[in-house]
Amino acid sequence: MATPPPAPDRAAFLTALVSLALVLASESRVCCGFATFGFDVHHLFSDPVKGVLAVDRLPEKGSLEYYKVMAMRDRAIHGRRLAAASSSSSGNQTVLTFSSGNETILSPYLGYLHYANVSVGTPSLSYLVALDTGSDLFWLPCDCKSCVNGLKTSSGQTIDFNIYSPNASSTSAEVPCNSTMCGQRSQCSSALSSCDYQVVYLSNGTSSTGILVEDVLHLTTDDNQSKAVNAKITFGCGQIQTGSFLDGAAPNGLFGLGMTNMSVPSILAEEGLTSNSFSMCFGPDGIGRISFGDKGSSDQGETPFNLRQSHPTYNITLTQINVGGTAQDVEFSAIFDSGTSFTYLNDPAYTFIGETFNSLAQEKRHSSDSSIPFEYCYDLSPNQSSFETATLNMTLKGGDQFYVTNPIEVISDQASSIYCLALVKSGDVNIIGQNFMTGYRIVFDRERMVLGWKSSNCYSATDSSTLPISPTNSSPPAIAVNPQDTSGSGNNSVAGNSSSSMSIHSHLIPFICTFVMILFPILAIV
Known about the structure:
By secondary structure, the chain is of the alpha+beta class. It is built from 7 helices and 30 strands. It has a domain at about 300-505: Acid Proteases (Cathepsin D, subunit A, domain 1).
């Protein structure tokens, strides 16, 4: 049975998403060889997303509400991450994008930071799916027995989600139990019966259950020809969602980016469409890209992954930390996780960074405040226009250095401003979060099993030297209290990128912290 035409509200919503994608689409280039599939990445709290979606109650970046919400979201994901853990040159490639648009947005709940609008099936339908480097399976709500059907606006109007149905797509087929993609072959009644799946996220009883299907993921080459590429992929027909998936986390599907053969990057590589690698890049204003098949460049920094056979993750080893010229040798593992907003480290690394940073700070330390997720914060005087902060540099296994361009955050209201070392003490796993990745293209090369990084402006598939990533000395940069975004400005200074400050409107902190955790302040699950 064909899917009915979209209702006016839904059509308007999808039009807004597509419009945002067109406005923010990156420049294309022509190359040859393996393809690279890419799309732009935008933060839910970024100005472009708030402008198009008319979200006027989201916390401003730089406000106390913003950092409280992001820290709350980080804490929600850690249980799932821990549970899961226990149980060539880019010039030779062509950039490709999702045919339904490059636009993505961020959700601050359960760690699914970035969303992409992807197109699946024949005829194609669009789905707003959460991107997750910490899981593998791509699944969509499908022939639902228990799932989210749409969002309700503050005015009471309903925006319907597309719900996938194998019967409505002429290119859909069930995955049989004898398929190598079926992980529950031992439980099948016969070799040709449908392959069941269940992914359990041990956080708030969250799970997705259904059957595996094959269908077409619609992609296009990101060059002058815009050639259509229809990739046959295996994904989950999610008939039953539970827990947080019914409360706002990944309400319209989840796009796994993990290491197993079930993830979309693995499938694209297995089909010969891309190299078995992808990159993610995030700018200070929330705009970025993800590119499938991107193997980075010969001049990027690199470090090997530490692989665990039971549950491989993007885990690396740090060997030295340098704060403002003071170095300490270390040896510990950390996960590079774009699904975590801030960086979380155990002792002794956490205390070394914090106390060394504190000894070099020139401003008075802010009195302890439990409402702020960071421990090391400092008061700025009312007339202060800039300040200096210690540099932070990490040496990874193999000897390459990773200079953190954005180790601090500025939190402002109409009366005062403070700046904080955006680092949180962890009691368990070490995580290098998105804030430490700002200004880089991070390459997850699963062929060579290395993590790569290189300075990038995050606005196009080509690299840029917008940010001075590897300074030759340890002198602290001057940070502007009210820096301007560098998008399109040509401003190459560290000061314009190491911190940000925005006015906040001190309204209804409990309302924001609670309702944003569900999804959007103006939207509700229906």
